[in-house]
Amino acid sequence: MSRFEGIYALWLREFIVFTRERSRIVTSIFSPILWLFAFGVGLGSSIKIGDLNYQLFIYPGILAQTILFSGVFYGVYIVWDRKIDILKAVLVAPLSRTSIFVGKVLGGCTDSMIQAFVMLMISFALGIHLTPIGFLFSLLFIFLLALSLVSTGLIIGSLMESPEGFNMVVSFLVFPLFFFSGALFPLDNIPFWLSIITYLDPVTYGVDGLRTVILGVSRFPFYVDLGVLAAFAAVMFTVGTKAFDRMK
Amino acid sequence: MQNSIETFDLTKHFKGTKAVDRLNVKIKQGEIFGLLGPNGAGKTTTISMLCTILKPTEGTATINGYDILKDPHNVRKSIGIVFQEPSVDDILTGRENLRLHTMWYSVPREIRDKRIDEVLQLVGLEKRQNSLVKTYSGGMRRRLELARGLLHLPKVLFLDEPTLGLDPQTREHIWEYIEDMSKQREMTIVLTTHYMEEADRLCNRIAIIDEGRIVVMDSPLSLKESVGGDIVCLKTDPANVERFRTIESVSKIEADDNNIVLTVRNASQNLKEILDVAGKIDSVEIRSASLNDVFLKYTGKEIRVESGEGGLFERVMRARTSK
After folding, report:
1. Chain segment A89-105, per-residue pLDDT in tens
2. Which ranges of chain B would DSSP assign to H, the alpha helix?
3. How many beta-carbon contacts under 8 Å exist across A and B?
4. What is the pLDDT of residues B47-81, one digit of tens each?
5. Which of B2, B100, B190, B294 has the fewest beta carbons closer than 10 A?
6. CA atoms B162, B167, B173, B176: torsion sign
7. Do A94 and B87 touch (CB under 8 A)?
8. Is any Cβ of chain B less than 8 angstroms from the Cβ of A84?
9. A173 to each of A76, A156, A240, how far by Cα in Å?
């Protein structure tokens, strides 16, 4: 019981910080909105993807992007926590490293889910008709994406000593993950070499899954999207607990 | 009585340098034990190992009967720690910091608020408990850190330079809390410091450490007695130095430029003889031996105080005690 309370306390800390730093929500929502309304409308005025308006086509991709960026960059807080010494107090408390990792991951997932929820509200403004089932499955995909990407961010964070170093490494990671995920283009007519890369990008399956449940358009079968994403989340989560065990 | 802390050849190497070199101490329950030494002597490294956040290169230790290597979880349950660099959370309020801490340490739910109120009162932060910690002064942060360390009533409390850089008034308060805790709760307290007065005032026993080794370990009183008397400083012609060797009560003579420093048994009674021998002098100062003299005796070095505020405080205290 005490273990869950410890995790709850760690999560609660992250949540309080999130509500206190509202600028985090605003800045994390600003960029996706820019993508949807500048890039989406701009390029959408000239092109269509099948029967779909381009802005609608990229909406699930931009939703995934929101989680990708906020999730992975969340890892910087573990670097800061170490740098400003507040993590020491947690490390000497009778909490296991796994509990600390779980608390941090849940905190990050909550941040990402709140941001994704705001993005889901925007879907109504775009004229997307989400069914209740579609909404619930969206949340499932959002959660799996958040779980895997927050874990990834925390793993990198546990290895880095400076926030600057963290940002460098993560920039090299998130942009390829985003651009090769099919968030901005369909995967049907692309050259072979590109399709190989997109298949290796786990975010691809999140984008495709979200596109399936939100727009009813997909590249892979639903169970493939769900299976790959769940496996990715499980792997990153497990690696994350190990990374926290080793963290100094 | 059971030993709260025992170390067995506790050792830590950092890239070839021996930060802590085969430390062996036994600390009794309820004791206030001081680790005294200059910066870089290995005090913080020792505490970090005992708190399970740093793994020893060799050796081990037990705290409250639990091995720091085999049972770190129970060690952490038994201890509280006040870090040298405050580790309270800036973005939270004082009370929130304490509340989370009670949850980490599984303080029973029904007594949480009561405990939090108690420690807040103890450190005098009731009025500011709902302000964000980032609005606190350095002294308030340290007091909050101390409150947090006491919150779960640990069996052993580690204080790493608890009053570094604090003003004299706050320092006095903190000393009082530490003494109270030790008496009322039979809490074992280990503190590191490079302030002589702090160690002298609080500790039942002191280990003087230098370059990772314990140089000498005893009660402050015995340590000061081991210097062999009082300290008499004379400003006079250094050519006279040989004359003092004839005086029986003088146990040690040091001279530089025109200062002669003598260690004298019962200086107040033997002063006349010294002054007679000295002949013409510019000034004379007598003081009782301090821990600094002890440190000097055993290591040949002085402990320098590096913090600005602390330095002023030291000077004020010295001026007072030398009167």
Report:
1. 999 999 999 999 999 99
2. 43-50, 72-78, 94-104, 109-122, 138-150, 168-185, 196-202, 220-226, 267-278, 291-299, 308-322
3. 62
4. 999 999 899 999 999 999 999 999 999 999 999 99
5. B2
6. positive
7. no
8. yes
9. 14, 10, 17
Question: In A, which residues are within 8 Å of B103 by CB distance?
Answer: 5-6, 8-9, 12
As a whole number of angstroms, the distance between CA A13 and CA B102 comes to: 13
Q: What is the DSSP letter of A231?
A: H
* Cβ contact A92–B52 (<8 Å): yes
Judge: A96–B73 Cβ closer than 8 Å, yes or no: yes
Both tokens of A175, joined, read 């942009």
Q: Which of B79, B89, B105 faces A13 most closely, judged by CB atoms?
A: B89
Q: What is the DSSP letter of B76?
A: H
- Of residues A9, A21, A84, nearest to B100 (C-beta): A9
* Opening angle at CA A75, ends A70 and A77, nearest 5: 100
pLDDT digits (tens, 9 = 90+) for A58-76: 999 999 999 999 999 999 9
Nearest of A71, A87, A229 to residue A151 by alpha carbon = A71
The token duo for B78 is 């038994």
* Alpha-carbon gap, residue B167 to B312, rounded angstroms: 10
pTM of the entire structure? 0.85
Cα distance between the two ends of chain B = 41
Comparing CA positions, the residue from B316, B144, B322 lying closest to residue B233 is B322
Closest approach of chain B CAs to the CA of A21, in angstroms? Answer: 9
Mutation target vs B (from A19, A22, A86, A98; most B CBs, 10 A cutoff): A86
**Chain B within 8 Å of A8 (Cβ-Cβ)?**
yes
**Owner of token pair 């739910």:** B109
Among the partner-chain residues B85, B90, B105, the one whose CB lies closest to the CB of A93 is B105
Chain A: closest CA distance from residue B60 (Å)? 17
- Tokens 């009183």 locate to B221
Question: What residue in A sits closest to B82 (Cα-Cα)?
Answer: A89
Q: What is the ipTM of this complex?
A: 0.88
Given B79, B83, B100, which is nearest A13 (Cβ)? B100
> What is the rounded distance in angstroms from the CA atom of residue B316 to the CA atom of residue A163?
42
